[in-house]
Amino acid sequence: MVPAKSLIVIGFGGLGKEVHWLAARLGVHVRGFLDDNPNLLGAEFCNATVLGTVSDWKAYSECEFIIAIGNPRIRMRIRDKMLQYGVPNFATLVDPSAVVDFTQVSVGEGSLICAGTTCTVEINIGAHVVINPSCSVAHEVVIRDFVTLAPKVAISGNVHIDSLAEIGTGSCIRQGLDLGAGSMLGMGSVLTKNIPESELFFGNPARYIKNIG
Ligand SMILES: CC(C)(COP(=O)(O)OP(=O)(O)OC[C@H]1O[C@@H](n2cnc3c(N)ncnc32)[C@H](O)[C@@H]1OP(=O)(O)O)[C@@H](O)C(=O)NCCC(=O)NCCS
Predict the structure, then answer these.
(1) Do residues 87 and 99 share a domain?
(2) Which of 36, 47, 90, 139 could hold 157 in an S-S bridge, CB 3.0 to 4.6 Å?
(3) Whose CA is nearest to atom 36 of ligand 1?
(4) Quick check: pTM over 0.70?
(5) Which residues does ligand 1 sit against, CB inside 6 Å?
């Protein structure tokens, strides 16, 4: 799960810098960043520079890539844009302090598991998933593509989280629940019921707030 090649981090925001830090912890060399904000060209973090915009990725096709942007929809849009120009090699990065047994946990390409997260058994994590620091993912959880877990999310067993869903910081999810595609659970929530597709819930207990489709 450690990329053999140099890494290009897509996104020069907070998560991008955290991914640079994660890469350093893995001993992976960061070649630089790509970011679609033209004002960031040449900006630097820990000796790695913003080299260009996302469409410049082909110039670095010998590298591996990770899309370090927290918003699931933007992450998917960037992946789709990259695919217009070819097939990039996406890295899968797991912090050395995360507890992840790859005989029990499958992790798709482009996914990121940050420091202090624990995943237990029979867990399926899709592609381009972002799991922020100190999350807890229990048995038989399914996390589909482009999901984001903010820091300190606690997911009980047998929970299914569909693609593009986003779970806010410090939220807890009761066992056996389903979170629909593109749904969101606000920070600090206690989820006791399923969330249908494209709906925002928050609170304790979490309640329907609005449709965000
Ligand atoms: C749920 C969320 C998306 C709502 O954002 P929003 O639509 O911009 O909502 P607002 O900030 O305008 O808040 C609207 C109201 O809901 C309340 N509210 C917002 N989020 C809440 C939450 N998670 N729990 C309880 N109440 C919340 C606000 O206090 C406000 O109440 P008021 O009308 O009485 O003043 C956002 O608050 C949230 O939780 N985002 C996730 C943050 C996070 O986890 N970041 C991780 C970064 S790594």
Answers:
(1) no
(2) 139
(3) 186
(4) yes
(5) 70, 132, 150, 168-169, 186-189, 202-203
